[in-house]
Amino acid sequence: MDLGIAGRKAIVCGASAGLGRGTARALALDGVKVLIAARSGDRLKAAAEAISAEAGIEVAYLAADVTTEAGRAALLEVCPDPDILVNNAGGPPTGDFRDWDRETWIKALESNMLSAIFFIQAVLDGMIARKFGRIVNITSYMVKAPAAILGLSNGARAGLTGFVGGLSRDVAAHGVTINNVLPGQFDTDRLRSNHTRQAELSGRDFDAVRAAAIKSIPAGRLGDPDEFGAACAFLCSAQAGFITGQNILLDGGQVPGLL
Ligand SMILES: NC(=O)c1ccc[n+]([C@@H]2O[C@H](COP(=O)([O-])OP(=O)(O)OC[C@H]3O[C@@H](n4cnc5c(N)ncnc54)[C@H](OP(=O)(O)O)[C@@H]3O)[C@@H](O)[C@H]2O)c1
Fold first, then answer.
1. Of the candidates 18, 35, 52, 116, which lies 20 to 30 Å from 42 by C-alpha distance?
2. What percentage of the chain exceeds 90 in pLDDT?
């Protein structure tokens, strides 16, 4: 399917690995001029080169921490007028709410709420003026099915979700859509490190933790970052112009809610 966005410009955050990389790949395969960001330069360069070789299109990259104003500004200097913005950063640590002080909370809010809000603030008026924009925020299935140990993530991402709910309706008439995509359990570094930690805490081995995770997913497997990317790319497509303000679960059926 031709997504109708070849030649459009995209900034994809957190894209040297995992879900962000899958999204950057899918956009590049559709002919989008992608700028990818992550903090560590080596892995980022390798990802840009691999996607570029596969898609046959140049993929730009910039080492930047998207949770900082300087990082976002540096990305906007390279790509000042993106048509597509994918907000994504690492998730906060798991833990017990008794241990989370103010500084820990502020860090989580910066990573998973405020960084996306400030990036949206920086690009939205340009998208409105050009009468086309696609913003996708990668959040988590925990927004719909929160677990206490991920309280930092749940709190920050629910804040972003609330913000997007109002704003998306406000700008819909200008050809700009804003949606959140809620990953369930995808086979990425982040999930592997979560499983390693759970194994350490529970005294089980990694394979047992992973098998239990897979058992909790009706699809009977973990998600593939490339299929996550394909769904995100569709939300960025010309055809998805009537989808906005949504929270779309990609979870193999794990969250049992009806709506
Ligand atoms: N995988 C899942 O099953 C799952 C489920 C629910 C929610 N999520 C959420 O989805 C997001 C992506 O997860 P993932 O599994 O794809 O993680 P991942 O495999 O660890 O990849 C994260 C990517 O983001 C980059 N990154 C992290 N912090 C960044 C920052 N501050 N600035 C710029 N780039 C940054 C990383 O590179 P550098 O480290 O070099 O910066 C890497 O490229 C996370 O917020 C995660 O909590 C994932």
1. 116
2. 95
Can you give the pTM of this predicted structure? 0.98
* Pocket flag, ligand 1, residue 191 (CB < 6 Å): yes
CA distances, 73 to each of 69, 133, 193, 249 (Å): 6, 19, 30, 30
Query: Which run of H or of E encompasses 85?
Result: strand 84-87
Phi and psi torsions of 250, nearest 5°: -120, 95
Ligand 1 atom 41: the closest Cα is on which residue?
A: 39
> What's the pLDDT tens digit per position in 36-77?
999 999 999 999 999 999 999 999 999 999 999 999 999 999
Instruction: Look at residues 242, 82, 80, 61 and name the one whose alpha carbon lies nearest to residue 169.
Output: 242
Give distance in angstroms: CA of 19 to centre of ligand 1.
7
Which atom of ligand 1 is closest in space to residue 185's alpha carbon? 3
Q: Which residue has the tokens 């982040």?
A: 190
In which residue ranges of the chain is pLDDT below 50?
none
Of 251, 181, 258, nearest in space to 217 by CA: 251
- Cβ of 19 less than 6 Å from ligand 1: yes
E strand or H helix at 241: none
Q: What residue ranges in 106-257 does DSSP mark as E strands? A: 133-138, 176-183, 247-250
